[in-house]
Amino acid sequence: MAPCFLPEKILPIDIVATILVCAGAIVSTWFGPHTQKTFDVPALYELYSRWSFIVMQTLVIASIVVVLLWIMHSPDPFESPFAKERRVEPDPEPSIPPPEPIKRQWWHLPHKAIPFAHAYVAGLTGAQQMVLTKTVSELLFLSFDGRSQMHYALTYIVTVLAAAFAAFQIWYLSSGMPSF
């Protein structure tokens, strides 16, 4: 839809990426469960306290933190290698000496990997937000159906976490957009 509203050209990589996203959605829908289950707080608590869920969530959140730290400690973390060079007229009498070139360390992200690291963080944050939003929607559905889930603390914890992940994802994406 962006080319309809913005002066953008559709590149072959855009078509390939769109096809892959659509294929992934079709495959996950096709092979996903086709039964309707409603989970209340005790059932969700049981599911969320399984070791497989705890290990997976720990690994996901740890990888988000590690990649965020990796990005933030790399030189120019929000500068895209795809951003156009801006011409700046030199000051005839520089009052401040020019900065020394940044020495890249072995642990810095390769410059071309920074946009993908941003997408990785935003994508995983969005995935966590979707898991939590699905939980909130289940609890609200049950509450509107007459089986109130509002007397459980987990309802409020999950709601706050879903809002926090959504706010972080929006902030993170909007802070990185000017550099692309």
Overall pLDDT score = 77
SSE string: HHHHHH
Number of strands: 0
Q: What is the helix content?
A: 55-70%
Please report the distance between the alpha carbons of the first and last residues. Answer: 18 Å
| Cα radius of gyration in angstroms | 22 Å
Unreliable segments of 5+ consecutive residues: 80-87
What is the number of helical segments per DSSP (H or I, 4+ residues)?
Answer: 6
Shape: extended
Strand content: under 5%
Helix/strand-derived class? mainly alpha
In this structure, how is the largest beta sheet organized?
none
Structure overview:
With 180 residues, the chain is an all-alpha fold. The chain has a domain at 39-79 and 108-180. It contains 6 helices and no strands. Helix 4 (51-72) packs antiparallel against helix 5 (114-144) and helix 5 packs antiparallel against helix 6 (153-176). It starts with a helix and ends with a helix. The model is unreliable at 80-87 (pLDDT under 50).
Write the layout of secondary structure elements.
Layout lengths: L1 H4 L6 H20 L9 H8 L2 H22 L41 H31 L8 H24 L4
Helix pairs in contact: 4-5, 5-6
For this entry, give a set of tags.
180 residues; mainly alpha; 6 helices
What's this entry about, in short?
The protein is an all-alpha fold. The protein has six helices and no strands.
